[in-house]
Design goal:
By secondary structure, the chain is mainly alpha-helical. It has one domain. Helices cover 76% and strands 0% of the residues. It is elongated, with a radius of gyration of 19 Å.
């Protein structure tokens, strides 16, 4: 009932920043789950496979292809390192999004939408649903970032 009474109140500056930062924190969650998924994939486990990037699967597939052509098995760690670098780029998006950069939100979300299409190409529907959930919260963070400059909200 108290939420109905607050419907016409404007958000405080702290609430607007908190909403933005909560959305930006999803970049950190996505990167952490992706890095853990990449490291776990080195040990042939599919435990967190759906929570990683679709691009991670492409890198892992290429790495396994090189190993199949006679490269040493340690090559799989090169693929894991590339995947961790990709996760660090996502951490960069999160860092700048927490500081209020709408461009970081939009660029990160664009790349994550592309990755969502890659996941869908692998027919990983659980991973696709996780990507949609993360995109929802990233979008809420972008809206929170935009509200900071809107005096009517």
């Amino acid at each position: 009932m108290e939420n109905i009474n607050r419907i016409h109140e404007t958000l405080t500056s702290e609430e607007k920043v908190s909403e933005m930062q909560n959305g930006a924190n999803w970049f950190f969650w996505i990167a952490a789950l992706s890095a853990v998924s990449s490291i776990v994939a080195v040990y042939d486990s599919n435990l967190l496979y759906s929570l990683g990037f679709g691009v991670n699967r492409l890198v892992e597939g290429a790495t396994l292809g090189y190993i199949g052509q006679g490269w040493p098995p340690e090559t799989i760690w090169v693929g894991a390192a590339v995947n961790i670098l990709i996760a660090l780029v996502v951490v960069g998006f999160g860092y700048y999004a927490r500081k209020g950069s709408d461009m970081a939100f939009m660029a990160g979300m664009f790349l994550y939408v592309v990755d969502t299409m890659v996941i869908l190409g692998f027919r990983d529907y659980f991973g696709f649903l996780f990507h949609l959930l993360a995109l929802f919260f990233l979008f809420k963070g972008l809206l929170g970032s935009r509200k900071r400059f809107d005096p009517s909200v």
